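anyone seen this seq b4? input:
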Amino acid sequence: MRRIPRATLLSICVILVVALAVRVYLLTTPLTELEGDEAIVGLMARHILAGERPIFYYMQPYMGSLEAYLVAGVFSLFGSSTLALKLVPLLSSILFTLLIFVTGLRVGGVAVAFLSGLLVAVPPAFLAIWSLKARGGYIETLVLGQILILLAMDVGRRGQVALREAGAMGLLAGLGAWVNPLIVMYLLPIAVYLGLALRSRVVGRWLIVAAVGCVAGAAPLLAYNLANGFATADLMLGGAWSPAEIPHYLRQMVRVSLPILAGLAQASSSPTLFWPSFSVSPAGRPWVGAAVLGGFLLVAVLSARRLPDLLAGGPSAADGKNLLALLLMGAPAIFLSTRFRELVTEPRYLLPMYSAAPLLALLVMRARRFWRWAPPLLAGLLLSLNLYSLASQEPALNLPDTAPGSTAANRAELAHFLLSHGLEKVYTDYWIAYPLAFESEERVIPSVISGGFNRYIPYAYEVSVSPRPAFVFVAGTKEERLFVDRLREHGVRTSAGTVSIYNVYWDLFPLDAVKP
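predicted toks r here
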């Protein structure tokens, strides 16, 4: 086993310490406030420890429950808490940073590796925040994809596949297919790269071993679909799709998604909150999207100069940079061809583009050919942009608009109020319901009436048969106004109280007049 040079080891330590420091700091800010979809993963982990065995994220036939099982392991060691829940994506994001460093080392040496790692250790806000979300295995999928990239680079360099590598790649590919459909962003470029790099050796015993590994990794996904009429495939392939829509979504991707990835605009799942914020952000000017596209194309074109060699089977065909170039160019095309292309204001299905960070670092370091001070100046500019994107984030935009102002602190007040009044069953908004259930250790059981749907049916049933449920709203929201109008329309008598930002209604009579 070769010894790691001291300079490389020191660089790794610096990168990992910086990455950890940035993420630990973010965990102390409102930017990483627990939200409803994350709380679901925490609840799944609790239920796993209680004996449940979910295959997917609750109430959907995709996005496997690997993250919830990992969180369950953490809960078994440290107890159930939001911090313990966030520990899994935190450690995964540190591992992703290390893998990016190793990728940079493969394609350009220590200097490129250091800058690659630094650009992910101090990343644009979108990557930073999504790398700390326990929300269906996004950061874990990036880890799986990056390992696959490194394995594929080794195979391409040698021009042959060892059976052990084939089994590992198949296993990781199958596992990724179960965990998150995002893995396709890696699998397609890797398949093209290996097909062209191996050429005459693309068919062999290794394919059988890889297929066995893939079946093993995807076993939960395959078993579920065989028993449920291929529900995952139906969902992924369903929905109307027309090539005529591509120009519209391409414009949206260039105008909105790429600037978000670059840190020039803040993502949001709420169009109501996103567009006013976007209009005053640096990306609100039309030329900014064009400039980001120009930068993206510059990196893609300069990095793809050896792709013709890959196509022709030349001496540099198996260069690992070719694989990263295929990923960088392929990810937007794949994104536009899937049902997830509508998520332009929260482009989480473009996260794999960050895996190509070593290409950007490589071009920055090569700028020394033109001016020796160009690399540090460009690196400083990129890191300053990343720091600006982190510093300019508005916590409210990271949460849905149906539960504005809901935080762990005021939900604790709400839980105390409810339990002190004997109100363990509540109807409320999705983005209040599941954080409230998780943070109260399921002493408060919710059913969703706005902002989403019931992901855990046993909760909804318990509330539906409760003779004394409460209704909880953020005061002054549209959802509360509609509820109050129904009370008046049906002449319902109720007790009411206010705690922090919430209004609570209970002892409704007649209950059936307003009960969902």
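The chain has two domains: 6-398, 408-513. The chain has 23 helices and five strands. kinda curious what u guys think
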